[in-house]
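HUMAN: Spend a minute on the protein record below and explain its fold to me.
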Amino acid sequence: HLSFRKGELIHVREQKDASWYSGQLRGKIGWFPRSYVRPATELEIQNSKNII
């Protein structure tokens, strides 16, 4: 199980089935429901790369 907050970008590692993803966030790896997330926009991805 992977805990996250609204607005955080999760690196998706694997899709178990149509309902579940495995992802990595803040050094932790876990499963989470696909229905809880949406794909990041290009702008969101670029902005996250600018955060130190």
Remarks:
- DSSP finds one helix and three strands in the chain.
